[in-house]
Amino acid sequence: MRRILKLPPLKITPDSCVSSEQNLSNTYKYFGIRQLISHGIFDSCFPLHEKLDYSISNDRVKLRTTWATICKCLKLQPIDLIRSYMGEKVAFYFAAMGSYTIALILPSIVGVIVFIYGVASVTSDRPTSDICGSFGHNTDMCPLCDKTCSFWKLSDSCVYAQISYVFDNVATVIFAILMSIWARGFVEGWKRGQSELQCRWDSIDFHECNEPIRPDFEKQVRSKRKNIKTGRKESHVSIEQKLPKILLSISVVLLMCDPAGCMVELSIQLLIIMVGKQIVNTVIEYGLPFLSSRKLCKNTDENKKQWEIDNQLDVFDWQMLLPEYLEMTIQFGFITLFVAAFPLAPLFALLNNILEIRFDAWKLLTRYRRPVLHKAANIGIWTAILSSISYFAVLTNGAVIAWTSEFIPKLAYQIIEGKGTSLDGYVNWTLSLFPISDYNRTGTMNPNIPSNLTYCRYRDFRESIGPNYNYTSLYWHIIAARLAFMIIFENVIYLIVYLVELMVPDVSSHVQEAIDRQRYSEQSHRDSPPKTPSAQHVIKNHKEHLFLCIEAVSEGTSAPITNFLITIEDRDPKCASLTRILETIFLEAWYPIIVATNSREIKQN
Questions:
Q1: Closest to 197 measured CA to CA, from 206, 209, 185, 210
Q2: Which residue has the higher pLDDT, 567 or 177?
Q3: Rounded distance between C-alpha atoms, residue 568 and residue 559, angstroms
Q4: DSSP string covering 426-468, please?
């Protein structure tokens, strides 16, 4: 069976790529190696790894010995070598992770200092001493719930108060302010570093808008929507499909902290996420592949060819980078949004990322097939997401300091009571009285009342005389102070962030100069007439058209359908050099994953 596919004429103009894509998008929509694999015509298609033989020197061996090992975790990553072996898309991920990890060093050091200060000064904190001392032993607190809860002493919360002070002191407030500025500084610094990589890798004007749609995605979408820019209908995920996931995510965030205040609970939650969860994820994500790799090494025959060895490896899917970016973004959110509750979060994030980079490198080099080299201009939407988180971090840090921590009530006590810097009597100032005569009017409380007890205490600013027990004026003064602090805090930090953005442009001066030179050179070449003999010959004899055809010929009647021969042929031998260039363009347009070579016949097995 012989099948010949004749391509439409290609007009050599600046708009040739656009017109060709529009003409072919409908006719050959289902062409491509991905579609052939999804229909079972091919089993797989992947580029080969270089041989992992430590007696020879190749890129894979260099990466394995200098990058994908814990022993080299303190060395900088060979980003250019990663890009050469795995492509820009993978290289940009590791560049972003590396920049983020290096940026975590400074907040990790400051966070440790803040934590040490909290531990060292807890014994000298006056409110904590009052709770753990004689005042706490002599203060009866009201039950915390109906029926089952009983009266308790204030000193029972001594350990809770000590832990709370470690994570809630003046140093943590200063640290939260610095982290709000650091988050924005990191994003601006990454933009500069990203622009340098774009210039070095020639990705400034590259756009990924023409990336083919995955067949699995096309099967899942239920509707199509017209693209405003192109005017064509595209697969679209409706808001009804996204809404349940969005609401679930928002509900988790809203339920994370109780409105009454939960500094210790928030600290415990962050401790579990930043330490416990990361340890479990590391064991699952890298422990199991390590065991399977040991088993694979025992069963590997040294006489096997490289393609047979690679065929046993796991398939690398580009969607695998999505959870890696997501993990980095969530971690960045936790250490910037709630750093006031857990100053050690940057330190644990730093340690996790050092291991994460090396483990990911090890997996890509030894556990997965070699990725097809994909061009990329940046890390995509993740830069905008990180930027949004850095802005939102100012709001959350201001809210945590104002509404969850004790910073504002302590400051109000010192100002209102005229105590200066002293906090003597602060605990007693925050406790309201509740008479025992009104204790069990509803009949739902615990009837066991200590003898000679006339009133109990509870944490609030309310009147001591019923029946309504309204808020006192002091309560509204503190509320006003909290709101005033949030407004001042956010405006001052946003002003500092704005000044940082003005002083630190997204593109450094030397990179911008290189970009301007490159664009000027490209414009000069476009304005000048073509000088190559092949191009002049095409314009003169073919009226700016070049005729080619692609032939797909089966290798015989007995050969399976999974084997066929692709031949690209031109009709004018004088255009050989130009045809080789267009050969790659055509193959990438019709068969996106096939890598064209100078050979006129490419056998796909």
A1: 206
A2: 177
A3: 21
A4: HHHHHEEEEEGGGTTSSS-S-----TT--EEEEES-B-SSTTT
